Amino acid sequence: MRIFSRAPWILKALAVPLAATLIYAHQLYAHANHGLSLWKGGGMGMFAGLDTPGMRFVRVYVVDAAGERRPVQAFSPNERRIIQRLQTQPDNALLNALGDSVLSTPWFLSRWSVQHQTISRDRRITAGPWARTLRRADILDEAGATQSVAVASAQVEYWRLHYDGARNQLYAEMEQSVVVSR
After folding, report:
1. What are the tens digits of pLDDT across the range 119-156?
2. d(Cα 98, Cα 82) in Å, to the nearest integer?
3. What are the counts of helices (DSSP H) followed by strands (DSSP E) for the chain?
């Protein structure tokens, strides 16, 4: 602290506000140019917007050899970490890493089914057909899931929720998407 003992009083008075301003400017730059969530990078804007990591989500699908797209619902701990990082600051390298990890996993058909949802151009969510889900071989825990599935590609989608004040409506919009093939 000897540096501050010799500094003029004006530097002492402006040191903390100047540091806070620099941190705030860096966060605004990262939010505007690199998709950083307002809740991260210092938290300066966390109460100024709805853009929390919880308002961002990742959908992952595997496409089998027959061309059927199936949702992935179980992730390894490493894949969950990648998803958390994507929710904070999306990046094509992370999307590709998640797709590579999903693609390298052996998959089996589950005995359980889920109903697909689709989002139309006018942002309406509609229920689609029922399809059997896939189970990961590394966390296989159910009897009867022994039919192996040949996976041709993985599709990773990064979605973000937005609020339309004029319509008083919350809607989802896909921001980025990558397809990783074998």
Report:
1. 666 666 666 666 666 777 665 555 555 677 888 999 99
2. 7
3. 4, 7
User: Which residue bears the tokens 């937005």?
Assistant: 162
| Structural contact between residues 171 and 162, judged by C-beta atoms closer than 8 angstroms | yes
Q: Report pLDDT digits (tens) over 6-35.
A: 667 777 778 888 887 887 787 777 767 776
The whole-angstrom separation of Cα 175 and Cα 65 is 27
Q: What residues have CB less than 8 Å from 89, skipping those under 6 apart?
A: 30, 34, 35, 36, 37, 40
Q: Give the tokens for residue 82.
A: 């990648």
State the Cα–Cα distance between residues 58 and 78, nearest whole angstrom. 15
Per-residue b/e over 57-94, b at no fewer than 16 CB within 10 Å? Answer: ebebbbbbeeeeebebebbeeebeebbeebbbbbbeeb
pTM of the model as a whole: 0.66
- Packing angle, helices 92-103 and 77-88, rounded to 10: 160
* Cα–Cα distance, 98 to 78 (Å, whole number): 9
Task: Note the Cα 39 to chain centre separation in Å.
Answer: 14
Phi and psi dihedrals of 88, rounded to 5? -85, -50
